[in-house]
Amino acid sequence: MPKIPHVYYDKATSSYYAVASIGFDELTGKRLQKKKRGFRTQLEAKKWYNDFIARHSKKAITNSISLTMDVFLEKYFIPSYKNKVSDRTFLTFRSKLLRLKYFYRMKLVDIKPIHVKNWHTELFEANLSNNYVKDLHQTLKEIFDMAMVLGVVNENPARIVKNVSRTKCKVDFWTKEEFEAVIHTFQKDDILEHLKFITIYFLFMTGLRISELQALYWDDIDFENKSFIVSKSMFYQNRNTWQINPTKTTAGTRLIYLDDTTLELLQEWRTHQEKIGQISFIFSYNCLPVTKTMLVKAIKVHSERAGVKSIRIHDLRHSHASFLLSLGMNDLEIQNRLGHADVQTTLRTYSHLRPNAMREVADKLEGQIKLI
Question: pLDDT per residue over 154-204, tens digit each?
Fold first, then answer.
């Protein structure tokens, strides 16, 4: 027989029992439950559950009425969420909690759709982007989903209020000429400048995510076969706290081949690095991984020197994709190179970089079919 919610089988007594949630203690926030044992069938247990809930629904609401958002987060949602996500995801979630303080002292049963909408207004007044507000709203939905499962509330106000629309992020990049102008501004005789140069060069020529680059060791490079395998990424918080994890998806694990010039530049950097000592990380001068802060500043400074626009670190990945497109690479080749989970991601992100593609298709079709 299919599993019936709130009904369980007791092997010791070969019988069924039901568990009904009747709310939460007003002072401690502890969940209150009523358990009834000794049923011969699932249906008997389910009937008792339905009758009990019908009789005690008002009492359940009363017991839950004082449970505030901050207590619910601390005692129920956060412990559960932390156990099912990665450290990186949980750290991102913790930063979102600051934006949920609007609801902290409110009782969950008192939070209505109008409060959620007013919360949206305050977030936009704080100049937060549509995309960030959308992510915050999704978090609120998940919190209320758990509250419903636990019987604290009867509806999810975040689901009633529609989420905001996501704004498509602008894909910025350097052209080949802009990239050349930037890399010519580095003085590689200085160890730090050399590190910045090789890091930015490698990101442009491989399309790696910064977290993937930070996790690369010299042992990962196969100089003989001119390749390396992307199989891990780094979760970096600060110089004292960082960890290396497997890539997030199966598609993220990939083999990347390197051109001869990039290999030569890596060897040149390795020689310079070895003057300091034996360092396992490729992109390091002090046995610690290169940081985003260093690269952000380097891109800004050297862009100004070269007289080209400054871009984000992640835009070097877009720059690589644009460079591949200019060389005539197809979508599947780019998908595999960048480690996208599916080709649709590649198409959505980079299709606009070749606006003449559809016209080129028509030009190639011209004259292919003989009518006589």
Answer: 899 999 998 887 766 666 889 899 999 999 999 999 999 999 999 999 999
Residue with tokens 């303080």: 101
β-bridge mates for residue 16, sequence order = 9, 39
Rounded Cα–Cα distance for residues 91 and 98 (Å): 12
pLDDT in tens, 310-333: 999 989 988 888 888 778 777 777
Alpha carbons within 13 A on the beta-carbon side of 14: 0
Interior angle at CA 57, CA 52 and CA 62, nearest 5: 130
In sequence order, what DSSP letters do the residues of 206-244 get, joined into one string? H---HHHHHT-BGGGEETTTTEEEE-EEEEEEETTEEEE
Question: Quick one: 217 and 341 in the same domain?
Answer: yes
Confidence bin at 20 (pLDDT 50/70/90): confident
What whole-number distance in Å separates Cα of residue 296 and Cα of residue 209?
14
SS (H, E, C) 276-301: CCCCCECCCCCCCCCCHHHHHHHHHH
Flag whether 146 is in a domain: yes
Q: Are 79 and 72 in contact (CB under 8 A)?
A: no
Q: Which residue range forms the structural domain that includes residue 33?
A: 7-64
Answer whether residue 264 is part of any domain: yes
| Contact predicate 37/15, CB 8 Å | yes
Q: What is the pLDDT of residues 235-246, one digit of tens each?
A: 887 877 888 888
Q: Is residue 370 part of a domain?
A: no
